[in-house]
Every structure is written in structure tokens, then in C-alpha cells.
Amino acid sequence: NPSKFKGPNLPVEQVSWNDAKEFISRLNQMKKEEGYVYRLPTEAEWEYAARAGTVTAYSFGNDDGQLSQFAWFGGNSGGKTNAVMTREPNSIGLFDMHGNVSEWVEDMYQEDLGGAFPVTNPLITSGSVRVIRGGSWSSDARHLHSAVRSRNSADVRNSGLGFRLVRTSQ
């Protein structure tokens, strides 16, 4: 396993999209009797969760002066990932949506989402690269906005890249 697990309270980092999918496949095999299925969020689901019902740059508003309360990023991280759930959650109770590690989502990258995003959930299944959402411990404030998206090939790993799971009923 090439990922870096540095402790029980730190996010896993240096995980490719392929690594995340392999982990999810194994997790679903191990947990199949529990009545749940685990997966990566779609890009629209990720943004919906990050926005927490807002239309502002961040889930807490537009003032990046408050970012240190909600995120580990280039301005406060000390140049590394930090313990999860140590910044404030957004209004729906989710932690670390704006920083610590960027997160893979299920979708393939498409430049133009047709203006419907994120109101609808059009899982993008064609393309050559995968979508990454959220900023990381090394990002500046403008790269932590709820709407910021990036992309990379499914086999890329780096110290600011991880994933978040969605759990649904079978």
C-alpha cells in the first residue's frame, strides 16, 4: 500500500483515485453484511456538502479572515496535514471540507458542466482525468472556496491528496 497513514487522527494522504477505489471495493466486501455500501461522493454531492446550504465562497461566508477557524491550509498548517475534526465544522456538521487534504470524487473531469452544477447530480463518466475537490494544507485561501475544482490522472498521489467516503443503505 503506497498511501501514507501517519496516525489515527490524521487524514490518509498520498492516495490515488485508483487506490481509493480499491480500498472502497475491499471495504464493501468486508462490510457487506452491515447493510451499507461505501463509495466516493459525486462532484455535485461533494459541493453540496461543502456549501452546507450557502451560496458564499466558503460554508461560513465570504470572509477568508475566518478560514483558520474552519480549515487547515497554507496559512496555518505548519506545512503538513493536521488532526481531523480540530477546526470548526460547517453548519451541517461536516469537518475539513475546506482544507487539510484535497479529496477525490467519483466524476471524470469535464470543463463545462452546462450551468446545472451543482443543482443537479450529473455523474460525469467520460473523460481522461478525475476531479479533485477542496483545498489542502498547502493551499492558499482562494483555492479553498466551495466551488474550486481541479483535476488529475487517476494514478496521481501527493501529500495533500486523500478522499472522503459516502455511506448509503444497500
Can you put this structure into words, describing what you see?
This protein is an alpha+beta fold. Helix content is about 15%, strand content about 15%. The protein has helices at about 15-30, 45-50, 65-70, and strands at about 35-40, 100-110, 130-135, 150, 160-165, 165-170. It has a 4-stranded mixed β-sheet, with helices on one face. Strands 1-6 form a two-stranded antiparallel sheet. The longest helix has 14 residues, at about 15-30. It is globular. The chain starts with 16 loop residues before the first helix and ends with a strand. The model has no long low-confidence stretch (mean pLDDT about 90).
Topology:
Elements: H1 17-30, E1 36-39, H2 43-51, H3 67-70, E2 102-108, E3 130-133, E4 149-152, E5 161-163, E6 166-169
Parallel strand pairs: 2-5
Antiparallel strand pairs: 1-6, 2-3, 3-4
Key descriptive features of the protein:
single chain; 6 strands; 3 helices; 170 residues; two-stranded antiparallel ribbon; alpha+beta; 4-stranded mixed β-sheet
Give the rounded overall mean pLDDT: 89
Strand order of the largest sheet: 4-3-2-5
Share of helical residues: 10-25%
What low-confidence regions span 5 or more consecutive residues with pLDDT below 50? none
Summarize the biggest pleated sheet. 4 strands, mixed
Number of helices: 3
Cα end-to-end separation: 28 Å
Residue fraction in strands? 15-25%
| Secondary-structure element series | HEHHEEEEE
Radius of gyration: 15 Å
Can you count the beta strands?
6
Please tell me what the overall shape is: globular
Structural class by sheet pairing and helices: alpha+beta
